[in-house]
């Protein structure tokens, strides 16, 4: 039943009993029975025949115990961020790994201490010329940024952008943004930013809609 809740939590779309049964390698009858039990225990699951089940927003429950594979995934991702992320995220990743190691039961401790997967080493240090914490805040808040940017030929331009997201690569970090000057999406390496002014002005679009437009532009290239 915990697994059913987890399946419903990770998607905003209805999930059919067939799909749940396939993932859990059980029968639809078992899924129907367990969902009915969960509903009887006041878990806010909604469902319609032929459409599927959904978990209402706002539902909370105690954290589920991580499986060995989930621990491996969390540690691998945290390792990568600790090596490739900016200093603030790197510290957060190190804290996360320490919390995981402290919280898992003794029999799962070897999965943390001796993982089967290891993130690659960082190729070279990259100095960000922009406040990465302020940049992430602007992305979440949907606020404009004015950049003085130097390209690979050394030419400087000033432009106002609508930040979309930060891409973390092995040897650089890149800001994806809508550029008002170009009237299109552009990508800016954070180590080539000469100056950044974080504006209080929100751009006239929801951040989620802007991100969807960016993804479509990438897919069409």
Task: Give a structural overview.
This protein has 221 residues and is α+β, with helices and mostly antiparallel strands. It folds into three domains: 2-55, Arc Repressor Mutant, subunit A (Orthogonal Bundle), CATH 1.10.10; 68-113, no CATH class; 132-219, Roll (SH3 type barrels), CATH 2.30.30. 41% of the residues lie in helices and 24% in strands. The protein contains eight helices and seven strands, in the order H-H-H-E-E-H-H-H-H-E-E-E-E-E-H. The protein has helices at 2-9, 17-24, 28-40, 68-84, 87-103, 109-113, 132-141, 207-219, and strands at residues 45-48, 52-55, 143-150, 156-168, 173-179, 184-189, 193-202. The strands form two sheets. A five-stranded antiparallel sheet has the order 6-5-4-3-7. Helix 4 packs antiparallel against helix 5. It is globular, with a radius of gyration of 22 Å. The model has no long low-confidence stretch (mean pLDDT 88).
């Amino acid at each position: 039943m915990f697994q059913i809740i987890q399946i419903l939590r990770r998607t905003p779309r209805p999930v059919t009993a067939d799909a749940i049964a396939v993932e859990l390698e059980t029968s639809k009858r078992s899924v129907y029975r367990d969902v009915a039990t969960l509903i009887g225990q006041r878990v806010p699951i909604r469902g319609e025949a032929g459409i599927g089940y959904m978990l209402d927003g706002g539902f909370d429950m105690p954290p589920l115990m991580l499986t060995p594979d989930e621990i491996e995934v969390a540690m691998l991702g945290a390792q990568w961020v600790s090596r490739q992320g900016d200093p603030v995220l790197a510290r957060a990743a190190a804290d996360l790994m320490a919390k995981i190691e402290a919280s898992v039961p003794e029999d799962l401790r070897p999965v943390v201490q001796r993982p089967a997967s290891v993130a690659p080493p960082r190729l070279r240090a990259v100095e960000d010329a922009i406040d990465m914490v302020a940049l992430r805040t602007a992305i979440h808040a949907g606020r404009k940024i004015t950049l003085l940017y130097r390209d690979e030929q050394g030419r400087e331009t000033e432009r106002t952008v609508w930040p979309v997201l930060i891409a973390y690569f092995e040897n650089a970090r890149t800001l994806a943004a809508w550029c008002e000057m170009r009237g299109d999406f552009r990508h800016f390496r954070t180590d080539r930013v000469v100056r950044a002014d974080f504006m209080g002005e929100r751009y006239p679009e929801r951040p989620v809609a802007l991100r969807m437009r960016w993804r479509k532009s990438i897919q069409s290239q």
